[in-house]
Design a protein that fits this description.
The radius of gyration is 18 Å and the shape is globular. Helix 1 packs across helix 3 (about 80-90). It is an alpha+beta fold and about 140 residues long. The chain has one domain (about 5-105). Strands 1-3-2 form a three-stranded mixed beta sheet. It has helices at about 5-10, 30-40, 80-90, 125-140, and strands at about 15, 50, 75, 110, 115-120. Strand 4 (about 110) and strand 5 (about 115-120) form a beta hairpin. It has four helices and five strands.
Length: about 140
């Protein structure tokens, strides 16, 4: 079993690729938030299914090194979850997508890991909220 960090590294190295026949990234911001909530609360989040093949189908955005095809894992199930995790943890678009493919980009959201609550802040508002929180903490 691979850790989330190992999966993200494999996506970055293009060792995990997305076939062209897979649907686009369609998750809403709420679905992305709920994945994070489930992970922090240690709820089941579903399984991932990969296909290791020497003769893969067409790969999205040609995000593959043709010389290493035998060592690639093609995502068959779990790409919405993997893409969401990649966007949150790497703060960039996965190699198998381009910017215009991501309609509901969750990278502008924050999750409060200290409290494990589903508090999401828009990054552009974060500097305005942080000083208010610090003032409340100093008063108590």
């Amino acid at each position: 079993m691979n850790s989330i960090g190992e999966l993200m590294a494999d996506i970055k190295k293009k060792d995990i690729v997305l076939p062209e026949f897979q649907r686009e990234f369609v998750w809403t911001l709420e679905q992305s938030k709920q994945l994070m909530v489930s992970l922090v609360r240690k709820y089941p989040t579903g399984s991932l299914l990969f296909w290791k093949t020497e003769n893969p189908p067409e790969i999205k955005n040609l995000a593959v090194d043709r010389e290493k095809l035998g060592s690639k894992a093609v995502i068959l199930d779990g790409q919405q979850r993997l893409t969401t995790l990649y966007l949150f943890t790497q703060n960039e678009i996965p190699p198998y997508y381009v910017e215009r493919d991501i309609k509901h980009d969750p990278r502008h959201l924050y999750f409060n890991l200290e409290t494990a609550q589903s508090i999401f802040l828009v990054k552009s508002l974060y500097p305005l909220i942080l000083p208010q929180r610090a003032q409340r903490t100093q008063r108590h």
